[in-house]
Amino acid sequence: MSQKLVERLRQEFGARILGEASEHGDESVTVARDDLPLVLAHLRDHEGCEQLSDVVGIDHPGRQERFEVVYLLRSLSRRHRIQVRVDVPEDEAVPSACGLYRSANWHEREVYDLFGVPFAGHPDLRRILCHHEFEGHALRKDYPIEQGQECTRPEKLFSDEDIAHAARRANEVSAQPGVVLDEVHPSDLLTVNLGPSHPAMHGALRAECLLDGETIIEARTEIGYIHRCFEKEAEDHTWAQVMPYTDRLNYCSAMLNNSIYAMAVEKLLGVEATPRAQAIRVIVSELSRIIDHLVCICANLVDIGALTNYWYLYNVRESIYQSLEKLCGSRLTTNYARIGGMSHDLYPGFDEEIKAKLQEMEQGISDVMKLVARNRIFLDRTVGVGAISTADALSWGYTGPCLRATGLAWDLRKEAPYSGYDQYEFDVPTGENGDTHDRIMVRMAEMIQSRRIILQALENLPSGPVDVDDARVILPPKAKVYGSIEGVMNQFKLIYEGIQVPAGRGYGFGEGANGELGFFCVSDGTGHPYRMKVRPPCFPIFSSYAELIEGGMVPDAIAILGSLNIIAGELDR
Amino acid sequence: MAVDLERPSNFITTRLRQAVNWGRKYSLWPLPFGVACCAIEFMSTVSSYNDISRFGAELVRFSPRQSDLMIIAGTISYKQAPILKTIYAQMAEPKWVIAMGVCASSGGFYNNYSTLQGADHVIPVDMYVAGCPPTPENLLYALTRIQERVEKEGFVPSAARHPDRVGA
Q1: Which of A145, A152, A204 sits opposite B82 (nearest CB)?
Q2: Chain B residues inside the 8 Å CB shell of A248
Q3: Does ipTM surpass 0.85 in this model?
Q4: What number of helices (H) and strands (E) belong to chain B?
């Protein structure tokens, strides 16, 4: 299907397609900068590419056209993916895709922030991850990783002109025939700053709201408060050393990040994990998904005032943590997967323990459902609040439970099965209205499905080794290291020079707890990633937040935020 | 404090400062400055299994003006630093600060252009907790150490405890 898509593009655009490539199953075409909007519009309108998954910038110093910008597109209806690449010299602009995809806004801002590539026609081209006093562009190869820059004051998101403009707009909206309302004066509007350091804003998110009475008439969001430079750190480390950094992306479900990162690198290496490693990855990934959903739901319920549920759900989570600690020595930041396998096998008695804990989980969920499912306050606070349609959700780049809550049964575990997910029986729960209530309920149902998957995987756990038999990626056993010169050399090379991933690029992805988690890896064969771009599921979802909360009240904004499950570590990387 | 065990009565003899410090020790109101992974472990510390209320510090306040113990749980970036400073300034004396985890203590393994290399670059810190993230037990230990200091030192303003950091 994908092959045909490139052919069709060639037919449509002829010589305007400057090049095409196919690497590790990722199809891509290169076009001229000026043709980019045309090609993207064609892909969206005639090839069913509803979603712009990500925009990746790559720096090639020394090349005449120094920067490369890659647009990752996905069609959910026709199940294909394509990457569109453009090359751009320093200081020249790329036409913006904001008119075509709403998710382009933030993705392009990020490329502008970190690489300094301007986008012509972008409505709001500002920095996004680095602070507003930052100078230079951090992901350029010539920017030293340790060169920090101090920030003296937080940025103001609304200027006086913006407030006056919002007041004018509010008057236009209310100026309907037959309705007499007091005129809104700019001084009537109250600016309320939510976050970044408030637990209801999950620690590191900020939204500034203009209130007319109790209603939010305009909101602006700001992120980057916990930008920890995952991508720059990845370039500074070997492929294996990146693994602990992935733990801290979505720290509620570190195992999922570990497994998907390992898969992405394995894709470039042409290595496939052993059946046992795949099954273990499925088990720990689904446990992580359960933990992630538990935290999301319990925090969301606390934010809307339902404290008891927090204890019911958190106890289950604590109980699962104890097993994870037993498994890998750490509760949160697990660092369990390895490229080509796992750090070690499961411990004896793991399956019985997990089965008992899943039972506890089911009890916890049923306790909570009894408290909330028909609770009038809960329903009033969540039903119809922050609703989004499937078409809008796709344009904003939604994936995962938030997209499924709108009624679209899209799950990468079903649509592009990996790690043997096709062998397990499970359903994809969906909602109807895409509101806060549906997002919570979809997560509730997903935990039950995850339990089904874990039970099947434990039942049919294949025997055999957990690591692939490949000296290029797996450290030799200690007996060999201490007993033979080949073993010592192998260990030394792997530790000091790192796994030698062949030059090339690949996009490895999987279903994270919040949606499509992807790693766009570029290798130049030196043992370090040349470029590593994470596609965090939260990032496009949070870009829609300002629009979701406009027209509602501040307490609604808090309820909506909880249900979107924005994890700042993953959002800001 | 002294109680006469031979002739039990309703009186305890003590010094006022001692009684106040004893009370203050067991009623710390923490402000979680939770920004990253450590905030999740802080949640675990508050929850039933570890139960921070055993140490009298369960009344988590999100308003700095009501709290006397700041727990910096997570990585402080340069972008976050001015906010941390403001919030610390809004806390009333006496106040204490725990830097939870290596990011807040020293930047941890994030030695890069965006991460402040330790929260003590902007505000004075009283206790550093190792771990990435520290386990709840570890945080509780830090809390008890702070309690010991509260009992011993009493009402010593933060500026007096950190003379080198005046005006920080």
Answers
A1: A152
A2: 36-37
A3: yes
A4: 6, 4
C-beta atoms of B110 and A311 within 8 A: no
Which two three-digit tokens encode residue A15?
Answer: 């010589």
Q: Which CATH number fits domain B29-152: 3.30.420.40, 3.20.20.70, 3.40.50.12280, 3.10.50.40?
A: 3.40.50.12280
Task: Count Cα atoms within 13 angstroms, Cβ side, for A320.
Answer: 31
What DSSP assignment string belongs to A113-164? HHH---EET-TT---SSS-TT--S-TTSTTS-TT------SPPPS--HHHHH
CB contact under 8 A, A154 and B82: yes
pLDDT, tens digit, 9 for 90 and up, residues A248-289? 998 888 999 999 999 999 999 989 999 999 999 999 999 999
Query: Is A314–B47 a contact, with Cβ atoms under 8 angstroms apart?
Result: yes
- For strand B69-73 and strand B30-34, is the pairing parallel, antiparallel, or unpaired? parallel
Contact residues on chain A for B135, CB-CB shorter than 8 A: 331
On the question of a cis peptide bond just before residue B157, with omega within 30 degrees of 0, the verdict is: no
For A195-233, the DSSP string reads -SSSGGGTTT-EEEEEEETTEEEEEEEE--TT---HHHH
Of B33, B37, B112, the CB nearest to A332: B37
* Element containing residue A391 per DSSP (H, E): helix A390-396
Q: Which CATH number fits domain A238-535: 3.40.50.1820, 1.20.140.10, 1.10.645.10, 1.10.3720.10?
A: 1.10.645.10
Residue A147 tokens read as 């060169």
| Chain A environment of B41 (Cβ under 8 Å) | 331-332
Instruction: State whether CATH 3.30.460.80 applies to domain A2-116.
Output: yes
Residue A149: per-residue pLDDT = 87
Surface of B (3-62) touching A: CB under 8 A: 32-37, 39-41, 43-44, 47-49, 62
d(CA A517, CA A536): 5
List the domain boundaries for chain A: 2-116, 238-535
Residue A330 to residues A170, A291, A299, A353: CA-CA distances in angstroms? 52, 15, 22, 17
Q: Do B81 and A321 touch (CB under 8 A)?
A: no
- Token readout for A108 is 């392009």
B47-94 pLDDT, tens digit each: 888 989 999 888 888 889 999 899 999 899 999 999 999 999 999 888
pLDDT at B166 over 60: no
pLDDT at residue number A162: 84
Every domain of chain B and the residues it spans: 29-152
pLDDT in tens, A164-197: 888 888 777 666 666 666 777 888 888 888 878 8
Window 69-88 of B: residues touching A by CB (8 A cutoff) are: 74-75, 77-84, 87
Q: Return the structure tokens found at A371.
A: 């408290």
Residue B53: Cβ within 10 Å count: 11
- Give the Cβ contact number of residue A396 at 10 Å: 25
Q: Is the CB of residue A203 less than 8 Å away from at least one CB of chain B?
A: yes
- Residues 131-160 (B) with a CB less than 8 A from some CB of A: 132-133, 135
